[in-house]
Amino acid sequence: MVGPANCVIVLRSDGVSLVLDVLRGQLPAIVHWGTDLGALELADVEALILSNIDPRGPNLIDEPIRLAILPEHWTGWVGRPGLSGSRAGRAWSPKFTATEVRVDGQPVISTEHRATLISAELASVEVEAVDEVAQLELLIAIELTAGGLIRARVDVINKGGDPYAVNDCVIAFPIPPTAREILDFAGHWGKERVPQRRPLTVGVHLREGRKGRTGPDAATLLHVGVPGFSFAEGEIWAVHTGWSGNHTHYAERVFTGIQVIGGGELLLPGEVILQSGQSYATPWIYGAYGRGLDAVAGRFHRFLRARENHPSTTRPVTINVWEAVYFNHDLDRLAELAEAAAAIGVERYVLDDGWFGGRRNDHAGLGDWTVSPEVWPHGLHPLVDKVTGLGMEFGLWFEPEMINLDSAAAREHPDWIMSTGDRMPVESRHQQVINLGIPECYAYIRDAIFDILAEYKISYIKWDHNRDLIDAGTAPEGRPGVHEQTLAFYRLVDEIKVAHPGLEIESCSSGGARVDLGVLERTDRIWVSDCIDPLERQQMIRWTSQLVPPEMLGSHIASGRSHTTGRVHDLSFRAATAIFGHLGIEWDLTTANAQELADLREWISFYKANRWLLMAGDVVRVDFPDPTVVAYGVLAPDRSQAIYTLALLGRSEVRLPGRLRFPGLDPDRRYRIRPIVVGRPPSGLNPPPWWGAITSEFEPYGERRALGWGLPADGGAGLILSGAALASTGVMAADIHPEHAILYQAEALD
Ligand code: DGJ
């Protein structure tokens, strides 16, 4: 019998303290997660623990309830337990003893009589625990990461002889009673990440993702904060489940007033049954604390940016041909498009769906990953050579986890189609799911992708996934296979990445339906949405950046009339919206007129000149209580420069937008603030007097004279104000027509 662990751990990073109690062999419990408490002694932590014990009273259990990050039912906790499972009805309420703690791999030495205090930064903590009676072991990992995020996950190991069925395993982070307002996201195809708020009341606010993929309707991040929290204000605690399969996010307030936020994988019935010696690993569950939503978002951005292979700031301007040609692949037309793209400064060209097998429309071909000889008699070589010859990178679309019944793969291997075994799942986009959990199937798909990568110079994969996993079992028994499928997807991406260093992968799923840290940890960008209408994209960029930094948001300028909404927008609005993500074009440029091409060229060179800032800066969203105004900016980490935008989404009940604040700058530095006009100015531009010399360069509602990015010939004096003044009083915004946007630049003078 191993002795119980007996220690407390204080982790501090980026303005956050995480204090863990692993005293007397109990599972790790969070004593404090929030604002930095400074250096703590053992006595301080003991005082914190004592201060947190609630009084006993009538009709409460006689022992104080200690809430571990894997909450245990035996303690008297009647909220959602951490681990739910059984051995055919036994061992369903385990009581674990923590036996060993390691911090950054080093065992923590302690005795039964004397607790040890460990203090560290960015550390990784592992706790081993055992229940000898239930014959289960746990390995709990808790980390404080770059950016001040916390994350935790658990391995459950069956040490008994009988099978142990895991029904559910969630991790819970305690939040204080001041946090009473929930913000998470809804959404659907073409309209991803729509914010929704509600009060946290007694009970469970549960978001379940049962689509077998993250889903356009995923909670994405579940925040609970002090009522009325905004981008800049109010303490917030947020949870995110880093998993691309079925998953949960929840917030729970129990009758005692104790509150938690948590998450985990959602397991289907009988999906994980551990035989003797087998283990189940939960995904990472992330926690972010901050004052204001920007602070929370910044933690996720810093975490992703700290990845070893995070893409550089020179994110190449991309053209994706989907909305230009759809399935109509024709070499001459695609080559002409490549020429038009290269001529305006595009750096990467992505050939989308339709190049393989019998894929002439969306009824056939998925699963047959060889170039269609019918459409491409000389393979993709003529197009790849054309694109690379023009100095652009070449990217290619795949949808590796899917299969059409009308394909050679389905005809040869019907057993590779995921199903419950006795019937075909309902079709979606005329397709089914191919079972990567079957080793032969996995090898077939992997080899097919590797063959294409070996034959062509491909720098980029757009990895699509266009249906929900319904009845996704493994034939012939039909046992649930979503868990295995998700792991196999990760394995495949990892294998491809290892074999092809430098190859970028975009996570696309009917647009933005696979956006989570499980996939983001191993990919380079997401396709935010199939809706490229800038009016919609303004909101999507604003809210998707709650998790994803701008350089990972695929953000394209589409044709004037949106293919998803039918709305028509000026190029200036489409482009001013798109440059706040990884810029691309999704438009048949061969149909663009000379003025549009000239403007596009100007926007692309503006993006290239400023991507060092746009693709690496800190995102700040401006709190502006008028729903017709969306304003935000990106600030250089040293606060020497920033680019802001104000977009008018509609017409307000008041005549003018009023003063626009520019938060986030160094309050003690002086900045020159000035508008930037790229290409043609936004329609209806009516500049305020402070634009000064710049106004003389415009003819209202007319053409702009040839200028460099809106600066007048004299360099554009703009206004000089302190960062404090810009953040608190701001400057009068220009009047523009609705569904248009203006850019501003702030440049430090000292
Ligand atoms: C869905 C994606 O979101 C689109 O961009 C496009 O790649 C299509 N699939 C192709 O089938």
The total of helices stands at 13
* Shape estimate: globular
Q: What gyration radius follows from the Cα positions, in whole Å?
A: 27 Å
The oligomeric state is: single chain
End-to-end CA span: 65 Å
Beta-strand residue fraction = 25-35%
Secondary structure category = alpha+beta
Mean pLDDT: 95
User: Which ligands, by name, code or SMILES, are bound?
Assistant: (2R,3S,4R,5S)-2-(hydroxymethyl)piperidine-3,4,5-triol
Query: What are the low-pLDDT stretches, counting only 5+ consecutive residues below 50?
Result: 695-709, 711-715
Please give the number of β-strands.
Answer: 41
Proportion in helices? 10-25%
What is the makeup of the main sheet? 11 strands, antiparallel
Summary tags:
750 residues, alpha+beta, 8-stranded parallel barrel, 13 helices, 41 strands, binds (2R,3S,4R,5S)-2-(hydroxymethyl)piperidine-3,4,5-triol
